[in-house]
Design brief:
By secondary structure, this protein is α/β, with parallel strands linked by helices. 38% of the residues lie in helices and 13% in strands. It has a five-stranded mixed sheet. Helix 2 packs parallel to helix 3 and helix 5 crosses helix 6.
Length: 212
Amino acid sequence: MAKAASYRLLLMRSGRTEWDLLGRVQGAADLPLTRSGLTAVQGQTTGLISHKLNSIVCAPDEASRATAELLKKATSCRRLTVSPELGEMALGLWEGLRYEELENRYCRAGRQFLTDPSGVLVPEGEAFEDYSDKIRSALAGVMARQKRGATVGVVVRPIALGVMRCLLNSADLGQLWAMLSDRPDVEWYQLSNNDPRLVAPPRRPRRSASAA
């Protein structure tokens, strides 16, 4: 039996934007890195100089692209691809609000989003389960296009990163915030060809919290 292909995956959170620093819900809003965010990314990527990446794939927003360019330079990577499928979850009418405003304005839905976002339907935003399925499929596609033994970097915004970490650690998606707060911005993973963690499980009945 042929041995399964093995890949190294570097997951990296994009650098901080102004809304990150102000505690605002960013969602799919496209913002640049702040000066401090840029400095932090430069420090993180400098620590990766000894690692060589075969390719880098990033989300399409400005902060992710700027972060990926710095990673590309530090690791002497020649190939950088921008993938719209890795974009951050659209949070509709919530984008721009401070996180502490969610509970005051949206009651139960706001509270649930801040604890377990998986069952929340944000007004004019994406359904979380649809979004998580899209991210799983996008990550599986990225890895399927790699050569055997490749090392690939993926740079995304926080919610996309949290979804990926839940998938790769076989954790429930309700643990998304813990996967962001309890871990560093840069993590390594070892994946196999057709890794079962990237295969979508059967859909659960959708839970929802009204965001009205």
